[in-house]
Amino acid sequence: MGEPALSLQIATTVHHRIHTVTVRMDSVGWVVSGTKHLVTPGGGHRYPRGRVFVLPRGAQWEVVNDPAPQGRYVARLLCFAPELVEQFHRQFGQFAAVPPVQGCAGLAADATFEDSFTRAVAALESDASSQALREHRALEVLLMLAEAGIVFAPPGELGWAERVRRLVGPSPQADWTVERIAAAFATSASTLQRRLAQEGETVSQCLRDVRLETALVLLQSSTLQVSEIAARCGYESHSRFSAAFRERFGFPPSQLRP
């Protein structure tokens, strides 16, 4: 197993609405300040300070991150690798009968949960933490969720589009070609394209998803300039990056750099 989970802090003083966010990894977030809204045509869910939101992989939402009422939106986020979720189900079979979360779920961040969540973040962000400790701390958060009646579905076999996204994710700026990606999977370019087409995907769509979703995370979790983020995500043209980002998420990247 690689990293068992990813720890992020999303922070902004700018109210923004993100069109159609696709959740790529099972995730749990803790709203530290401000308010998160998850919106659908049929309604929505509101998570103010002190609430925990749980998002299963594959869910799609319009997301509003609102600095009000504290003046700054801050959320800590843990995203769990499929291998860790699979390990959880092997290790804690007593939760097999609990229906997996659909769409989203929420709960209050009591002191016990905050303590477990904070320990997991500290372990994942420390270079001194062993792999075993990182897995243990992340599993502890999954166990606490399960005891509250919230479990993620077993991941099953990864589709080809997800395999491509996971391959290119660590290096979105690289010169990825169909041939290079196919070679990484020890298959031919035509076979890879056919397998992706069966899922309604293409290599270019997967690359675009990874690059723009990585850019969104960097805009929300770092102080990098927009031009630097564009370069890190494989865009040589600042204007082309801004246009693609706006088309995908509904606002220009500069909006998050007041």
UniProtKB/TrEMBL annotation:
InterPro entries: Homeodomain-like_sf, HTH-like, HTH_AraC, HTH_AraC-typ_CS, Tscrpt_reg_AraC-type_HTH. Transmembrane segments: none annotated. Keywords: DNA-binding, Transcription, Transcription regulation. Residues 162-258 form the HTH araC/xylS-type domain. Signal peptide: none annotated. PROSITE patterns: HTH_ARAC_FAMILY_1, HTH_ARAC_FAMILY_2. Pfam families: HTH_18. This is Helix-turn-helix transcriptional regulator. It comes from Acidovorax facilis.
